[in-house]
Design a protein that fits this description.
- The complex is a heterodimer of chains A (418) and B (170).
- Chain A contains 12 helices and 18 strands.
- With 418 residues, chain A is α+β, with helices and mostly antiparallel strands.
- In chain A, the strands form 3 sheets. Chain A has an 8-stranded antiparallel sheet with strand order 2-1-4-5-6-7-8-9. In chain A, strands 10-15-16-3-17-18 form a 6-stranded mixed sheet, sandwiched between helices.
- In chain A, strand 12 and strand 13 form a beta hairpin.
- In chain A, helix 7 crosses helix 8 (303-316) and helix 8 packs parallel to helix 9 (334-347).
- The radius of gyration of chain A is 24 Å and the shape is globular.
- Chain B is of the alpha/beta class and 170 residues long.
- Chain B folds into 2 domains: 1-89; 94-156, no CATH class.
- In chain B, helix 4 packs across helix 8 (150-156).
- Chain B is globular, with a radius of gyration of 16 Å.
- The two termini of chain B are 21 Å apart.
- Chains A and B meet through helix 7 and helix 9 of A and helix 1, strand 2, helix 2 and helix 7 of B.
Chain lengths: 418, 170
């Protein structure tokens, strides 16, 4: 699963913005340019699905600060598109194979005073399906003719539908409509009026497929040094259960070897890492250095060391399709940043990587084609551009000036605008 | 101090993990020259010469068959480069990685590579032959270096053999 694009209107410092994503995306810009606001839209989407719309809005700073200050009367629009490749077979009543290809979700909401109204709310799933017979199942390599299907789930906002307010429309062949996953060609379901599809119906449909595996990390090394043994094994957003996540990795010999190889490559002074449980149910990790037999507990390690270990865990040992890292270079010496970016680059073949940074070394090693520049104009409105598309940038590059130099000199923003 | 100019992270992993421990220098520094402007790299080279500090400049031969031609290209690009410091890798560094795997190590990794030289191996062929999974290259390269047999590599890769003899690594 990959995020293909995000489009937003009237959101915080963005009036209208659409961004197409690739495998490796690096949001750069000055402080307060709007990088985190845009990247946090992905977290917002995830939060609506997991925690509900109201809590998701709360985490973005509340209704008051959601809309663009320059156009408070316009509604807030959000659209996210995914490359969403899943396939499965079922056999009730016909044997069918369903392959999803794309998923899009969009809503338009308006907020006035303390009330919120949903103007539009739609989910689209596009894909292909085929009715299988016995021969097909035996001979999968045979050419098959797949049929397109389009599923649209929308909120009905007319008064007569006030009680039954979710409409499911399916354009597909009859055999798919017979099947209990898509039991209806056209149906209206009763749902609580205030909820977004993403909070309710979405789960009913999506849980048939692989769930979204989007993880956002904003590590706080101070909080990642120790935790209780009751914390979960999967790494938390701020890394505060890092010792438990490491413990989980070290259980598997193959993963343990890979983990030590990667850690000792970026941090050559480290020979091995082990976890240590204390009688008060606290768990830490200890690092054995190559130069001596000494072991150092995690609460004595530098913030940069903790940050690098957390990044390696998040990238290589967590089950995720999309990894979002806020300022991964934090506390890390510039000479090590090329190795960290190399790890990000390595993983980008299998997972989608989204990074937000204002570090010139990350800019240098990521390469210009990965950069998404976030900048603000005089009115405070932010916009996102790709410096690689600028003809003026090519002139600088041809004259031996690197993109990192231009970024440090604040010249990327003015390439095509000033 | 030895400064090692590398073309990318794959070179850096090779030198940092395998070569560095075998060289007698108190400290090492790496410069990824592909990410820097030619003037800046030339200034580095000039400064190193003036300070009488040592360096190695690693370059892939790629598809150029003529080593002299590639060396001259580098000399044209970087004013102060010393020809004697250039380490020409035939044809890409991936060949040097694979060269160090003995028959047993190849078998352990289920790599089917029967040629007795890796001199013509490209990056893409290496990835294909090793059935490299996405998101696994760094870890895979580090794992190869754990089992690396220098004597085996010397017989299978000409540039690695020349480098090993020149720097007395075997």
């Amino acid at each position: 699963m990959r995020i293909k694009s995000i489009e937003v209107e009237n959101f915080k410092n963005f009036e209208h913005q659409r961004v197409e994503f690739n495998d490796f995306n690096v949001f750069v810009g000055a402080n307060a340019a709007g990088k985190s606001n845009f990247v946090n839209l992905i977290k917002f989407f995830k939060n609506i699905n997991e925690k509900g719309f109201k809590k998701a809005i709360g985490e973005l700073g509340g209704y008051k600060y959601l809309k663009n200050v320059n156009s408070p009367d316009k509604p807030f629009k959000f659209r996210i598109e995914f490359d969403y490749h899943n396939s499965f077979r079922a056999s009730c009543p016909s044997k069918v194979e369903v392959c999803t290809q794309a998923l899009a979700y969009e809503f338009i909401i308006d907020m006035k005073d303390d009330s919120i109204s949903i103007i539009d709310d739609k989910l689209y799933i596009k894909g292909k399906s085929i009715k299988l017979d016995f021969k097909d199942e035996k001979l999968e390599s045979n050419a098959k003719k797949y049929d397109d299907f389009n599923l649209t789930v929308s909120k009905v906002t007319t008064e007569q539908d006030a009680k039954n307010n979710v409409k499911i429309e399916l354009e597909a062949e009859e055999y798919l409509i017979d099947w209990n996953f898509f039991p209806y060609r056209r149906v209206v379901l009763e749902e609580p009026k205030e909820d977004l599809i993403l909070e309710t119906t979405f789960d009913i449909l999506i849980n048939k497929f692989e769930p979204f595996k989007i993880n956002l990390y904003d590590f706080n090394p101070k909080a990642a040094r120790e935790c209780t043994i009751y914390e979960k094994n999967t790494l938390e957003e701020n890394g505060n259960n890092l010792p438990m996540a490491i413990k989980n990795i070290l259980k598997d010999e193959e993963k343990k070897k890979k983990f030590h190889n990667l850690v000792s490559y970026v941090l050559p002074f480290i020979e091995s890492i082990n976890t240590l449980e204390l009688p008060n149910d606290t768990i830490l990790f200890e690092v054995k250095e190559k130069s001596s037999d000494k072991k150092f507990l995690s609460n004595l390690l530098s913030d940069g060391t903790i940050n690098i270990i957390a990044i390696i865990v998040a990238l290589f040992f967590e089950d995720n399709d999309v990894v979002i890292l806020e300022e991964p270079e934090r506390f890390i010496h510039p000479s090590l940043i090329s190795s960290v970016v190399s790890l990000l680059n390595d993983v980008a073949g299998a997972k989608q990587i989204i990074v937000s940074t204002h570090n010139s070394e990350v800019v240098r090693y990521s390469g210009v084609e990965r950069l998404l520049l976030v900048s603000r104009d005089k009115t405070g409105t932010s916009k996102i551009t790709r410096p690689a598309e600028s003809e003026n940038l090519k002139v600088f590059l041809e004259n031996d000036l690197g993109v990192a130099d231009l970024f440090v000199d604040n010249m990327l923003e003015g390439l095509d605008n000033c | 101090m030895l400064v090692i100019f590398v073309e990318g992270e794959t070179d850096k992993i090779f030198f940092k993990k395998l070569i560095e421990p075998k060289l007698n220098y108190s400290c090492f520094s790496y410069r990824d020259y592909a990410q820097e402007g030619k003037k800046k790299i030339s200034s580095y080279l000039r400064s190193l010469q003036l300070m009488k500090n040592d360096y190695i400049f690693v370059s892939d031969l790629d598809d150029h068959n003529d080593i002299e031609f590639k060396i001259n290209k580098l000399k044209d690009k970087y004013n102060h480069i010393d020809e004697d410091k250039i380490v020409m890798v035939i044809k890409e560094i991936e060949g040097s990685y694979l060269a160090g795997l003995t028959k047993d190590s190849l078998k352990k990794r289920k790599i089917k590579y029967t040629k007795n030289t890796t001199d013509s191996l490209s990056k893409e062929e290496f990835e294909q032959v090793c059935k490299l999974e996405p998101a696994n290259k760094t870890s895979y390269l580090l794992d190869i270096l754990e089992d690396y047999d220098i004597n085996e590599a010397m017989t299978k890769n000409k540039s690695f053999n020349d480098f090993t003899i020149k720097y007395n690594l075997a």
